[in-house]
Protein: StAR-related lipid transfer protein 7, mitochondrial
Organism: Canna indica
Amino acid sequence: MAEPQILSPNLARAALESDGFWRERAGGGWATVVVVLFLLSWQLLRFFVSRRRVGSSEAADSSRALATTASSHGGSSSGVSDLISDADLRNLIISLEGKLQGDDRWEDVIDKSSDLVSYKAKCCRPKDEPLKYLSVTIFEECSTELLRDFYMDNEYRKRWDKILIQHEQLQVDENSGIEIGRSIKKFPLLTPREYVLAWRVWEGKDKTFYCLIKDCEHPLASRQKKYVRVGFFRSGWRIRQVPGRDACEITMVHQEDAGLNVEMAKLAFARGIWSYVSKMNIALREYSSHTGRATFAPSLLRLIKKVPPELEVNAETSMQEVSERSGSALSKHGIVDASQRKPLSPSTKWIANGLLLVGGIVCLSRGRTTIGTQLAVACILKKFMKHGAESSQEHAKPRPNRRKPRHVS
């Protein structure tokens, strides 16, 4: 069975290949060349820095991967059934309500609609975590079963989404309903990204469906130098009927750390997501008559599990009660451990910020720019100003008085 589709910040990179993103204004062609060269230099720097960390991480990843028993054709295996639990579903139900912790705030990104589809999304940046996106897409004249099959059918997706260049099924655990797969996605100007993911689907009342996807390791998916392995990935969605209408909606929450610049990813997402959604809507309409669905749907139905009754009640009532009962069980799932991230050395940070500043001066020295240039300039200014603010704070800190006290006799 194919890996579920992700309508998420992946589309920030999908936006980079859209016609609208690269459409130039008069006299702006040379600026695009400058920006492309600048971005390639930035990615090259990141590549050399990341290679120094690969050696130590590969040993740890290999040991974790060997703990999972490979099984390509189904059945239960040790470790796989524990990858995604009902506690993860409980966490997903809470996240889909859009509740945030502490001082985190949602920022509106886009809100557009047409005759058959509407899409709105917002994002926030939790402390020590990747960007979090929350989106709602409504498809008119569509059933929840059709939308569920469409999102889960990755073989069909390869027909209309050219970003996905490779996918393979690694394991299916029919007892728990958990699947594991590996996908390769190619984005413009970037090294191909490799995703090794586990996912699970539940069915609730009134043909409501939930899906949770998370990163994992697997012995059949060893790391390769030609790909960048996405190390953190948490995504999930809920598909349900829109009350009183011949339409259904999919609400999605997504976090991913693919090693991209945050500001540029946000801008590219806002610029290109609507064209991607429109393209997906056309593919969805054609999927209703797709012959392959007749063989795909039965295999999917065998793996779908029922939402536990206590979670079904919680989903219909108070999300606050779910959060309080979850307690420590939820704290183990879907949270980034910032202590495991090794920060860049001061010298590397200096080189990176210097490169960003030079690129900004070059781009800003001309009046007419393409949208690619605008994104790079915004990224440059944001990065440099942030670095300047941090430096100012560092210099503003009081220094301890190291002078020896003078004794007056």
User: Anything to note?
Assistant: The longest helix spans residues 29-66. DSSP finds 13 helices and eleven strands in the chain.
